[in-house]
Amino acid sequence: MAPLLVGGQPLIDIRAVRKSYFSGSVETPVLHGIDLQVPRGDFLAVMGQSGSGKSTLMNILGCLDLATDGSYLLNGVDVRSLSRAELAVIRNRTIGFVFQSFNLIKRMSVAENVALPLIYAGVSRGKAQAKALAELEKVGLKELAKRTPSQLSGGQQQRVAIARALVADPPLLLADEPTGNLDTQTSVDIMRSLQRLNEETGITILLVTHEPDVAAYARRLVRVSDGRVLYDGPAAPGLEQLAASHAQQMLAAS
Ligand SMILES: Nc1ncnc2c1ncn2[C@@H]1O[C@H](COP(=O)(O)OP(=O)(O)OP(=O)(O)O)[C@@H](O)[C@H]1O
Ligand SMILES: [Mg+2]
What are phi and psi of 180, to 5 degrees? Predict the structure, then answer.
């Protein structure tokens, strides 16, 4: 298998990615040719209307689904060349996932939830438990390690999900509307944590959000409309960049 780190290349490199869903012989095209290069250490927010294809794109980036057409190099590796088993290994080593609905396992303790990716990776129970507690400490929840998810607030559950996503030290964090179920103050806390994490560890973060206030924590913004990238630039652009992007859109529409 290819080495985990390949110098110089972007961590994510997708070209002309198309995605259709099929129901029998009926094809529904959703992504119409997406290009995206994400260097290591980037912090990128994806915005766009409901149904524009954001989750579809994230699922492809996370190797949970395959593109119908186009290329995807993850860490320099062509994901299409991999078997399902190889893909699962690359996914476990490279990507941490966070979802809107936390997706924690109800009957397991907080610590067991966080340790799970390490257990899957074959790490011994003792080591996994110790690393899980260290990860929970980073998100300020070590004292709650023995509780079950239902005994936590929404914000605390999302912190547990973040600890679980990070426990195997992946270079990439993918988050689909991580603050979608949280109130404003809790969203701010979560975004500050992600921002600090990105600055301190250099982890690459891609997140989907509907909230401009949430997107503002990112460095870069990608706006998707009807399966196409409409804007790709600074999350808080200067007037000059906004004007250039507006001019580009006018040209594209003409
Ligand atoms: N598994 C699927 N089978 C068929 N169609 C799907 C499937 N998943 C998504 N779609 C369709 O693809 C389009 C894009 O869906 P997607 O979930 O990517 O949108 P989104 O931008 O994430 O929207 P939201 O903001 O509501 O989460 C929608 O029209 C949706 O109905
Ligand atoms: Mg979605």
Answer: -60, -25
Whose C-alpha lies nearest to ligand 1, atom 18?
Answer: 53
Q: Is residue 29 part of a domain?
A: no
Kindly report the protein residue whose alpha carbon is nearest to atom 4 of ligand 1.
Answer: 21
Token output for 45: 């927010």
Q: Indicate which atom in ligand 1 lies nearest the CA of residue 52.
A: 21
Could you read off the pLDDT of 183-236 as tens digits, one per residue?
999 999 999 999 999 999 999 999 999 999 999 999 999 999 999 999 999 997
Domain for residue 111, yes or no?
Answer: yes
Does 209 contact ligand 1 (Cβ within 6 A)?
no
* Smallest CA separation from ligand 1 atom 7, residue: 21
Q: How many domains is the chain partitioned into structurally? A: 1
Kindly report, residue by residue over 152-167, the tens digit of the pLDDT.
999 999 999 999 999 9
The C-alpha atoms of residue 14 and residue 41 are separated, in whole angstroms, by 17
Neighbours of ion ligand 2 (CB under 5 A): 55
Residue 32 maps to a domain: no
Domain interval for residue 110: 101-170
